[in-house]
Design brief:
By secondary structure, the chain is α/β, with parallel strands linked by helices. The protein has a single domain, classed as Endonuclease, Chain A, CATH 3.30.870. It is built from six helices and six strands; from the N terminus they run H-E-H-H-E-H-E-E-E-E-H-H. A six-stranded mixed β-sheet has the order 3-2-1-4-5-6, with helices on both faces. Helix 2 packs antiparallel against helix 3 and helix 4 runs antiparallel to helix 6. The longest helix is centred in the last third of the chain and has 17 residues. The protein starts with a helix and ends with a helix. InterPro entries: DUF5753. Keywords: DNA-binding. Pfam families: DUF5753 (PF19054). It comes from Streptomyces sparsogenes DSM 40356. This is DNA-binding protein.
């Protein structure tokens, strides 16, 4: 089974990303910039195909029975200036706010001053049948797909910690003056300001 198949059958997806915005939340421009600057050399056609495939996968979040997608993104990922173009990151930050309005999408930011180190990115996919749960740990050469009970429990525990220490989730329905403390939306808006 590949990532797209696992996503299509998911009830819940828990994702931690220390360096990039998760693929299911990426804009076309952000995704294209990542592929162009990728670790593996590829032709323009291959990069374009990869971007289109990623955008196609995103439809799972707005389908008939969309999974709950909860992402914890390290603040470092939101500072990257891909291809030296601030407009790419500005569009991406706005997209995070937009997608957080979906009832099935939760976005939290883990700030630089948080108590947890960067760590490795992973996605825990939980389908209706719990025994088929899978953790995907991406790697340059070949991603790891872990499905044993111990791995699922371990990554669930890691994600629970990340969720606990990250800033409160983006809530785009709350007016700016109602934010009484530091939260994910406030941090994203602060990062947006210099990109105008």
């Amino acid at each position: 089974m590949d990532t797209a198949e696992l996503e299509a059958g998911a009830d819940v997806m828990l994702c931690y990303e220390p360096m990039f915005v998760p693929g299911l939340l990426q804009t076309r421009e952000y995704s294209a910039a990542i592929h162009q600057a990728g670790y593996v050399s590829a032709s323009r056609e291959e990069n374009n195909s990869s971007v289109e495939f990623r955008l196609e996968r995103q439809k799972v979040l707005t389908g008939e029975r969309p999974p709950h997608f909860h992402a914890v993104i390290h603040e470092a990922a939101l500072h990257a200036m891909l291809n030296g173009r601030p407009d790419v990151m500005r569009g991406q930050l706005l997209r995070l706010i937009e997608l957080s309005r979906l009832p099935n999408v939760t976005v939290q930011v883990l700030p630089f001053d948080g108590p947890v180190p960067f760590g490795t990115s992973f996605t825990l996919i939980e389908p209706t049948v719990a025994e088929l749960s899978t953790v995907i740990v991406p790697h340059i050469e070949k991603s790891l797909y872990l499905g044993d009970d111990a791995a699922i429990a371990r990554y669930n525990e890691v994600f629970a910690t990340m969720r606990e220490v990250a800033l409160p989730a983006v809530d785009a329905t709350v007016s700016p003056e109602a934010h009484g403390m530091k939260d994910s939306l406030g941090l994203i808006q602060r990062l947006l300001y210099p990109l105008l």
